[in-house]
Every structure is written in structure tokens, then in C-alpha cells.
Q: What sequence folds into this?
């Protein structure tokens, strides 16, 4: 028997600075048994700025990957296939 998900309506609040978003051209991923840490950086050699750090549980990351994969497939269907991105060079020193 399939579980039925009840739709929940959320009123999402955000500060004006958050609504503008932040640009990232590099991402670093760290993990422990309990969580994944996603660091989004803006790299302009020789400097890198940590713009956002997102910490998620492994099961949630798996759901995120599924949604991102589905969204990317829809994007490529609508706008054409994207070429593989060339990896950006990793920062030489960790961001503190």
C-alpha cells in the first residue's frame, strides 16, 4: 500500500538580503556519517570567499540530488543539452 503525502502549505519568510541570492562558481563537499556540508564559494584567484554553507542529513541530500537531476533533465529537454563543465581549480588554502 502506497503512503499518501499530505500537502503542506508553508509561509516562507526571508530577509531582503537572502532574496537576492549569492553567486557561487565553486562548491566543496565535506561529509561525516551524520551529515553533508556543502560549501558554496566565489573563487577569484588568488582568493576565495565562502558565500554559503549548507548542512544536510544524508537522506535529505539524496532527495536533493533526485530533484536536481530531474530539474536538469527538464532544463536540457527545454533548452538543449549542456556540455560537461570544466572543473574549477580548488582553492590552495581552506577558507576559514
A:
Amino acid at each position: 500500500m502506497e503512503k499518501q503525502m499530505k500537502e503542506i502549505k508553508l509561509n516562507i519568510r526571508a530577509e531582503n538580503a537572502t532574496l537576492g541570492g549569492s553567486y557561487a562558481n565553486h562548491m566543496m563537499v565535506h561529509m561525516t556519517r551524520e551529515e553533508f556540508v556543502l560549501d558554496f564559494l566565489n573563487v577569484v584567484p588568488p582568493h576565495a570567499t565562502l558565500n554559503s554553507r549548507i548542512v544536510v542529513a544524508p537522506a535529505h541530500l539524496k532527495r536533493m540530488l533526485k530533484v536536481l537531476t530531474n530539474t536538469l533533465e527538464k532544463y536540457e529537454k527545454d533548452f538543449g543539452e549542456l556540455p560537461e563543465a570544466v572543473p574549477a581549480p580548488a582553492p590552495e588554502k581552506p577558507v576559514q
In short: The mean pLDDT is 89. The helical segments are 16-19, 58-79.
